[in-house]
Specification:
This protein has 228 residues and is mainly beta. The chain is 3% helix and 41% strand. The protein contains 1 helix and 16 strands. The chain has one helix spanning 121-127; strands at residues 4-13, 41-51, 76-84, 96-106, 109-116, 132-138, 141-142, 146-152, 155-158, 164-169, 172-178, 190-192, 207-209, 211-212, 217-218, 221-222. A hairpin with a 2-residue loop joins strand 15 and strand 16. The longest helix is centred in the middle third of the chain and has 7 residues, at 121-127.
């Protein structure tokens, strides 16, 4: 469902002092299609989880005991942002680590989500990886993954401009669709950026702008749009 112009802006905190949240990720399922954007109030701060080796993952993004009720325009729903060590969740030789942040939102409203301190060495140390994979969850559905921070042509880069649409059908979340495209890259590069949960590239992956990490640092601050 399309929404009205952005009405709310919310933010979380990826700093070491962030507290443990009360939402739990169980398994991570491979989506049937990719994803796009929406959200509202901050619900839970980040916490670090190690997934079992060789685990195949599925997810429910909802507070404990709530279930997955039918959604109505103007009602409350939830979106979870997942930042992970690797794109391959089923590698038996690689223990997956991820952090997850939950946001409360209103159905059929545009909003902006910001995660403070995400673009920092602290997150990479938590994940034990310089690469950071990103995905979104809504109710019982998950998006395809994206590389948020990665190495391209031997240089560390960031993929900014993340936008996602959550599509409903009769009150149920049907699909998360990334709104991709090489728009306003400012002469920068563009790379295909959508992946399955086994690490393989999604066959209908579209391209997305990327920027060198050297252009993300602005003194002690993170230059827009590299901040998540």
């Amino acid at each position: 469902a399309e929404g009205r112009p952005m009405a709310q802006q919310s933010s979380g905190d990826c700093s070491p002092r962030a507290r443990k949240g009360d939402l739990r990720r169980r398994e991570v399922a491979v989506p049937t299609h990719p994803a796009r954007r929406r959200s509202a109030g901050w619900l839970a701060t980040l916490f670090l989880v190690a997934a079992p080796r060789g685990a195949v993952v599925s997810a429910v993004c909802s507070p404990a005991g709530r279930g997955t009720p039918k959604l109505k325009r103007g009602g409350t729903t939830y979106v979870c942002l997942v930042l992970a060590k690797a794109l391959d969740w089923g590698d038996p030789e690689n223990e997956q680590h991820f952090v997850r942040a939950a946001f409360e939102l209103k159905v059929d409203e545009y909003a902006q989500v910001r995660l403070r301190n995400a673009w920092s060495p602290d997150l990479q140390r938590k994940l034990n990886s310089t690469d950071v994979a990103l995905s979104m969850q809504s109710e019982t559905r998950v998006s395809y993954q994206k590389r948020w921070r990665a190495e391209v042509d031997g240089k560390p880069v960031t993929f900014p401009f993340l936008s996602i649409l959550i599509k409903l059908d009769q009150g149920d979340v049907e699909q998360l669709i990334w709104d991709d495209g090489c728009y306003d890259c400012g002469g920068g590069k563009c790379e295909e950026n959508a992946f399955e949960y086994d690490g393989s590239k999604y066959r209908h992956a579209e391209s997305q702008c990327l920027v060198d990490d050297a252009d993300c640092a602005d003194g002690d601050d993170v230059a827009a749009p590299c901040d998540l």
